[in-house]
Design a protein that fits this description.
Number of domains: 4
CATH class of the largest domain: Alpha Beta
Largest sheet: 6 strands, antiparallel
Helix content: 25-40%
CATH topology of the largest domain: Gyrase A, domain 2
Number of helices: 12
Number of strands: 20
Radius of gyration: 30 Å
Strand content: 25-35%
CATH architecture of the largest domain: 2-Layer Sandwich
Shape: flat
Amino acid sequence: MIRQFAVILLLLAAVGLPANASSEQSKYEELPIRLQRAVEQLPDSLNDIPTYWFERMSVDGWEKTMLIFGYENNKKSCEEVRVSSLEQKTGFSLRDRQHALVKVRVEEIYDALIEDIWSDVATLLRERRNRIGSSHLNITSEGLTIRLVEKPDKSVEAVSLVRSLIRRRGFDGDEMVISVKGSVVNIRIGKARHLVSEERALRQVINFIQQRINEVGTVGTSVQQWGVNHILIHTPRTGSVGELELKNIMAPTPQITLQPVVARLSDSNWAPELGTKVLPAKGESGVFYVVERTAIITGEDIVAAEATFDQNGRPAFEFRLGPSGTLRLGDYTAENIGSPVAVVLDNEVASAFVIQFHVPGGKAIVTGDFSVSETEFLAALLRIGPPPVGLEIVEGPKIGSIQANLYFRCTPSK
């Protein structure tokens, strides 16, 4: 304790205090630098005391805010400060509670937008080839590039054509930026569009996770935006129960399809023909099905799902299709009575049956090796559907504080 107090006095003496009001601001701005120098000037007899910077992330990068020193367990002390800071930021306790930190892959939005614009720009360039000549259109990490090959002097006219197209698509000048350098025209997404797209994506993801919480979560589980493109989910449940809840909330959306069956096998070592694949049967060891790769319907066609029981009292789930899926299922069943089909769930054949009659209403019941809780869980996830954009769990589910390297961290000062 005496050595710790000595370190405090030495550091205060080395740093000094503001002498007057006019110099107060500048001195406090220089405080991290002065503290670092003070640490470096500690006597050799005290140099074995470890010291850590407590840093927070700001718009300008990592900012030193506090020096933690003098304790044998100062790593733990640094963690305590970090957890306290995070608790103040989030407004709830993170200690002994479960959380998951989810990254929203906003880059997928931009990739889809660029690919969509690419199609329109490619059509425009073909239609105006007699005016601007042949060109090469490429997708880059920044956006699109158009290189005029035949008539490089027509770059100004190409910019005008592209700008008119972008305007017709409903983009403002600061949402989609167009520039030219020599014979190359560059199109990139502007900051304004980035902000609008990211805000919309985060709102949609929060709404999606909230729906998941309402279906498979617990009262008191919260979801909030965390930083620029992260979502924090926090459950009041502790231990393995809380961990399981968070895993359920973030479970992948089931991939369900209805596919024609080619054959039933007892050996997976079968070379599938072109356009087919071999899948295992769910809950049946040593049973495999050869199915056509092209699906009759997919999970994207499902608009409603409910847990139910089949005519024999076994757990099942029922789904209802939208107009397009209803039409495809009706046509296929009408034309293929007597043919086998399989319900494929996450690359396993959940059930297979022979079409007995025409199914015109767009409703179907899926039976198989399910428990009641499984059918309820699957029906809930199918009702909500997939997330609006890709999600990635970057931390959790687990007990403790949020990822240090995102907003707060401790680094050795020497």
